[in-house]
Amino acid sequence: MIIVMNDNATKQEMEQVVDRLEAVGLKVHLSTGDSRTIIGVIGEKGLIAEQPIEAMPGVEKTVAVTESYKLVSRSFHQEDSIIDIDGVKIGGGNLAVMAGPCAVESMEQLLESARVVKAAGAQFLRGGAFKPRTSPYAFQGLEVKGLEMLAKARELTGLKVVTEVVDVESVPVVAEYADMLQIGARNMQNFKLLTAAGKSNKPVLLKRGLAATINEWLNAAEYIMSEGNYNVVFCERGIRTYEEYTRNTLDLSAVAAVKQISHLPIIVDPSHGTGRWKLVGPMSRAAVACGADGLMIEVHPNPAIALSDGKQSLTPENFSLVMKEISGIANLMGMKMA
Ligand code: PEP
Ligand code: MN
Q1: 105, 150, 182, 210: which to mutate for ligand 1, most atoms within 8 A of CB?
Q2: Are residues 56 and 107 in the same domain?
Q3: CATH number, domain at 258?
Q4: What is the pTM of this model?
Q5: Residue-level pLDDT at 338
Q6: Does some domain include residue 104?
Q7: Which of 161, 263, 283, 287 could pair covalently with 77 via S-S, beta carbons 3.0-4.6 A apart?
Q8: Integer Cα distance of 73 and 94 in angstroms
């Protein structure tokens, strides 16, 4: 259930409502907008229905939420959420660009990638230190050494670091080094991992599962938010269909849909979404045009020798070209490239 407080409800009236709900064991989440406060109530349906909340002072109305996700929903928080990562904003008209290699391979490779993506206007450096690879024989990542390199690259360039966390055990170490935790497609429904990320104090980039419906994806975000971590950003990265020319089918309609259903920002990864570097530019432009709040793009100093995903990685030159093209579209859309 969602409780909408009056525009002029006092803090004391709001606290009375919260106390009443908590006293019977219900979980309460507050969303304070520009003009009014919305209280999300989570718990057993019957218990919620028993509370005479509409009779309490300061309450305008109560709204039953039928979807299984609540905190993620726009009915809980009407304005676009802005995720602020030490001054770099995602959402609410700010276009965030996360770029870098698929995997951290060496300090030289990472630093060169960081310098070129920074020069082209990206705000985040991406790069996997823990790699979830389809084959157990493929390069698995440099793990903690890779995290140390990411932190070094941040120190030298000022870029924020986003990197994947693949299991519950490594949440603390990834959270120690990264500015944002990435939960990959293969782990979108790893509920223990979602809960652990929800308990961490780091913003989370939640990629769409390999074949997840929008509803399953929204519920995955609810797992994170229900632990009190409201800093969640979605990332559309394509889904498995019967099409084989592209690695995945990039579902841009999901971007528009998620923006209607949820207040959380959503970015697009056209690299994994297509698997082909030549499609990354056109799909980046389309993503910004359909309302995405940002992009995640794989860039490698020399894609031909990349240890993973070279086929979909842009050269530094092509990345700066794509950045120029999207800045024109961002302008048309009234977005700031922070
Ligand atoms: C990645 O971003 O490196 C990655 C593995 O992506 P996904 O989880 O979308 O496959
Ligand atoms: Mn990759």
Answers
A1: 182
A2: no
A3: 3.20.20.70
A4: 0.93
A5: 64
A6: yes
A7: 263
A8: 21
